[in-house]
Give the backbone structure.
Amino acid sequence: MKVIDAKETYFKTLNDMVFDALETEDEVIIANVGGQRYIGTGMDAGKSIIVQGTPGNDMACYMNGGRITVKGNGQDAVGNTMNGGEIVIYGHSGDTVGYGMRDGRIFVQTNVGCRGGIHMKEFENCRPKIVIGGRAGAYLGEYMAGGVILLLGLNLKEGREVIGHYCATGMHGGVIYIRGEYSDDRISPGVAVLEPNEDDMKEISDLVRDYCKYFGSDYHEIMNERFTKLAPTSARPYKNLYARNEAFPLS
């Protein structure tokens, strides 16, 4: 294990130091992180980074495996176009967490900003998952094409909703599970609000167990609350907005 002090270190210099260390070490601790971008970009399986502080935007973008633990908050675009691995954030995260995420898992202890899980996708055995312990801002799951988002709504402040406005706008794949109550007008048209079936509850339970393992929450307390399931009603939610052409009919 190698410890790197990031204090007042330019982000490119820091990332070069981290990847040089990962050539010979399986785990690197980065201390005194203060907004440096792109930490863990493209990291492969079998490697681990522990971030002490607040990393900058695009942490773990294009990550192919391994694990990043953040002892602090994340900024925007955590896990951008992530291909695999796991991210655990002991705090909150900014906008567009899991943007275009293709596989792997992200656990956020508290809240996330707007457009979490935008453009998530899945293919064959690749099924990305995001677990959010608190609330999410507007446009959660926007244009979502696959994968899983689990929103737990823990420790909400009085008067706050678990989801922001326009949840699941343009969603055409995947599933969003939401714990607790919320206003119906927060859910975008073209999305079905369903009761989770047995398989859904098994998936929720497994993810909640892992969340509790990381953050020390009470599994039974979390599960002793109603969950709802959001699923798209169409694989082409905007087909009627496009101009029709007799040569290329929209059927």
The two ends are 57 Å apart (CA to CA). The CA atoms of residues 60 and 82 lie 7 Å apart. The first strand starts at residue 2 and ends at 5.
